[in-house]
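Researcher: Structure for this, please.
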Amino acid sequence: MKEDDSIEEEKNINPEYIIEDVKDQNFDNNKKTYKVIIIGNTGVGKSCISFRFLKKQFNDQLPATISLDVSYYRVKINNRIIQIQFWDTCGNDEFAQKTPNLFKNSSLAIIVYALNNMQSFKDIYCWNNILNELSFDCIKYLVGNKSDLERVIEKNKIENFVDSYNFSKYFETSAKSGCNIKELMDSIVISLYEKFEKENENKSDTISLKKELHRKKSKKTIRGCCK
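Model: Predicted structure, token format:
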């Protein structure tokens, strides 16, 4: 296990939001939890990314994920607690296709490829198709990992792919050095927070509309009784 002391200074990616770790990581079963699924080929660093973020360390001896690893994380954003489940999947597309429940109720999905591995980039098409089929309404992120190594994929190819397939965000990270790991996770938290706020807003609007309709209906009923 290696802990890198030379990580670049972490920046707040959006000054409108104050994001803080929560010391109490015990999950509240009565509180809404957001599911984040991480997919991509074996060896691209999916487990290392989540380990780097959750443990603040890099471990190049992590065993390959056989089927699924689930990690839990609670974070505070603008004084609201967000609960997240990170579902780290194995790099087997056949397993993913045969296990649709992996994708069920996903709020956000991260497709990871390695910047030094052309095949992992080509296989994004396959992973994107699986995601669209099994969880078409979730937020989509694309992550190019291993930015500390020599890249073999041109930036213009990546930009074209991101634009063509409607990814919400794209990050280039290094689980080894920690580059852009916090920025990636802060962005995920913000996306889930905004989704949460929108859901609450829609729910509030629906309740207000029902109350207004009920009020108008009651008013008409009272008039009818008076005639």
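Researcher: Any notable elements?
Model: The CA atoms of residues 6 and 91 lie 30 Å apart. Confidence is low (pLDDT under 50) at residues 1-10, 204-211.
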